[in-house]
Amino acid sequence: MIPIDLSGQNALVTGASSGLGAEIARTLSRAGAGVIVNYHRSAAGAEAVVQDIVSAGGRALAYAADVAEPDEVAAMIAAGRQALGPVTVVVNNAGREERCAAPFELSWDDYQKMIDLNLKAIYNTARAVHPDMQTARRGRIVNIGSVAFHRPFPGSAAYVSGKGAMLGLTRGLATELGKDGVTVNLVAPGWIPVERHAGVPAETLEQLARETPLGHYGTPADVAGAVLFFCSDLAAFVTGATLAVDGGKTVFT
């Protein structure tokens, strides 16, 4: 048995008050990492995740910050360093579709919001933690993209533009930060229902399952497992990679 042990590491998971981020935070904690549970609006959700972690014997704190704002990110990393220790793992999960519409019904501001959320946020978090990663000679940055970048759905032009920018920065940072012992990878989930999908009709869910080669749609735990792999020493020689977690529905190189 090969264990995944993140003891002595501290992680920032953005957008971790619910959904994928919450499950990723819990999973990294179970592997031994201290966790900053970042949130933007839902303090109650973030505190519930922290309570889950602490009750299981882990270390965590909730911190409110808009990851598109560099000063807020810097303050969050400083608070995490004081409470838990240096941050050497970052999972950039904060993201959403924001607004879906035909390409030219969307304003440039709609596109800019997606770029800020998916690109600016990664730049801010990576820049803030880079000094600690350099000192440790170890760092793991995992960005949560989407298979929609490779197979856009109607109305997703702004969303996939943001995810495309994320992929570009992932590869650029992987190339530049390798000399510091930092790996940068991207997990691209397929259809993973979370709390915000509670209103999706049952027939839609059934169709999505039928269209997936594995015969079912995924869970947040499936995404968290992929993230854990990239954060571990098992992936020490993997950087600049994209891993689709979609049951085989989307196949790409």
Can you tag this structure with a few keywords?
7 strands, globular, 7 helices, 253 residues, single chain, alpha/beta, 15% strand, 7-stranded parallel beta sheet
Description:
The protein is of the alpha/beta class and 253 residues long. 43% of the residues lie in helices and 15% in strands. The chain is built from 7 helices and 7 strands; from the N terminus they run E-H-E-H-E-H-E-H-E-H-E-H-H-E. A 7-stranded parallel beta sheet has the order 3-2-1-4-5-6-7, sandwiched between helices. Strand 1, helix 1 and strand 2 form a beta-alpha-beta unit. Helix 1 runs parallel beside helix 2. The longest helix is centred in the middle third of the chain and has 29 residues. The mean pLDDT is 91.
Topology:
Blueprint (H helix, E strand, L loop, with lengths): L9 E4 L5 H12 L3 E6 L3 H13 L4 E5 L5 H14 L5 E4 L15 H29 L2 E6 L12 H21 L4 E8 L12 H9 L9 H12 L10 E4 L8
Parallel strand pairs: 1-2, 1-4, 2-3, 4-5, 5-6, 6-7
Helix pairs in contact: 1-2, 1-7, 3-4, 4-5
